[in-house]
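=== Structure Prediction Worksheet ===
Name of assembly: unnamed complex
Input type: mixed (protein and possibly other molecules)
Chain count: two
Listed entries:
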Amino acid sequence: MTALQFVLETSTPNGPRAGIMKLTHGEVLTPVFMPVGTAGTVKALTPRDLRRAGAQICLGNTYHLYLRPTTDVIHLHGGLHNMMGWGHPILTDSGGYQVFSLESLRKITEEGVQFRSHIDGSSHMFTAESVMGIQETIGSDIAMVFDECPDAKADRAYVERSMERTTRWAQRCINSRTRSDQAVFGIVQGALFEDLRAQHARALSAMEFEGLAIGGLSVGESTEEMYAMVRFVTQHLPRDRPRYLMGVGKPEDMLWAVAHGVDMFDCVLPTRNARNGMLFTDDGELTIKQAQYRMDLAPVSRECSCYTCSHFTRAYLRHLYMAKEILYSHLATLHNVHYYVNLLKRTRAAIVSGGFQEFVEEILVRRAAGNNRKSC
Amino acid sequence: MTALQFVLETSTPNGPRAGIMKLTHGEVLTPVFMPVGTAGTVKALTPRDLRRAGAQICLGNTYHLYLRPTTDVIHLHGGLHNMMGWGHPILTDSGGYQVFSLESLRKITEEGVQFRSHIDGSSHMFTAESVMGIQETIGSDIAMVFDECPDAKADRAYVERSMERTTRWAQRCINSRTRSDQAVFGIVQGALFEDLRAQHARALSAMEFEGLAIGGLSVGESTEEMYAMVRFVTQHLPRDRPRYLMGVGKPEDMLWAVAHGVDMFDCVLPTRNARNGMLFTDDGELTIKQAQYRMDLAPVSRECSCYTCSHFTRAYLRHLYMAKEILYSHLATLHNVHYYVNLLKRTRAAIVSGGFQEFVEEILVRRAAGNNRKSC
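=== Predicted Assembly ===
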């Protein structure tokens, strides 16, 4: 297996780790935030913008790309890297999460999932083998196994059955691999049942995956439940492979997870919330439409070195937002992606220098103070 | 008057001219296309993008900026250049065209125009003096006089009365000037009546304007009527001052006007049509949503050096368009603005080298052939 090499630079048992993940399209320093590029674009950003924001790796989504532009178009380009003009690492989600979200539109069997397209209602089938095939065509550096992410309200019996099927699918995914330049990660499920989580973590860790992900969190459970489960599951994952917490989350959530040994994150919050008017800073979030920013000549954050903060005022960004200008989404996304990516870079530097605890405490205190002040 | 110096590098009587226009924020080589930044942003582009596309000067609109973000916000920033992060020349339209478009929402008197905001219905008054004051606060390099652009269907009597009032307003604009670093252009009206156009051109040319614009075209008349009027009016404009054809137009229209001695152009076509899926090239327009581009690995134009054409295929752009991705608007606008700006740069080079006729013929033939082929 040469598709992924993972070297830990510094780590403490069950604590924060700084690593280097070597992939086909380049190295990724961990812990890392991976901006989400669902349909072959991180919304509102060019690859050039993404790179300038410090991104080392971004996500694509198998479900969305399979439906549009469809696999043949990606194949014609020689893969997603070429098509979207991003020469650096890409991770693809398997589409499992998306098809299981289409509750009324899908049917699960041992073979796979029959579902209807959210675009045109057409009927499709995803299996472990087909999803791996699509991801091989996409040519991502890291492919994710086809898993079921059970509903947050599912009972123990269902979660257990689903988990066992996900394990069988995981083995089928491994069996269908044909590319030696693509890493594959397993996804640990088990909802909020500790024994099931531990059992699934052990089962997947015993398989030939280059990394392990924690799935099925940030799907409706409380923050406390999520935090407890992240702490629990990481203890059951192999130390020598990268750990990816899927779909999480707020800055505080990522810092908690890093503290317990997670290496990789993705989340739509920085991009989606940017478009909705929320801008992230060390002093909490700004809701840019608020009247208090109408005459505010400060940048979003004085400490931020992104293009947006280097050139534009809050008052101008508020104006663009109120006028529904496309440039607003571009500049806001630039800032938020820069913030997220660099929060993880700063976290890594703190781990390496031995100042992780102090760093996390400062961020948590400042952000809590800022957000409390704003909601008063 | 040092707000504008205009030097003609090469010119022929009533023919094409290559000039240098020195403004407070820099030099502009003419003929020039000026991208439209209505509300303080060329839609979907950063100032950095705009500069990379080759833009030397862009437009702002007094009506839109006055209503939103409002003049006090622009004043607080020390002017529009600072607010929008564009350190190069800016021209502002006076708002005349906009308020006269609000047909049911405005009332014209000798004093000025009472109108209702298209945003919230609030009542406002524009006069020659107030519009000049707003443009001085905006701090544009070139301000336009407050004029009336009569309806295309207006009769001769109305056009004549309106024109005479526009002349009185023009004098009031001049009388109210207080900034020596801002040039002011007069606007020749007169609809499609040659004698009125000639009379107005003479009247405005006799006043202390640093440049003259041709207004009231591209408002519903035929292409033949517009072409004839451009040729006619330019003969009645002073040779030593820049000439600006407002709101025009297609590549062919601009080449025609340059051939008859026009120096400056603005138009929303490259930006608006980009967002609607139309991409300009020397071989005619591409409608990117067409199925023929689904598997097309070519760039929009092989001859184009813009970021979009250097990095992305038609197939990818079509995908982004179909998926309603914001990045589509960004990349398409980048290309179209680059095309328009550079078409005028290439035109200037052809004038300077003495190859203007050949250049125009080649472009017209190629574009006509391309557009005919596409519509077959």
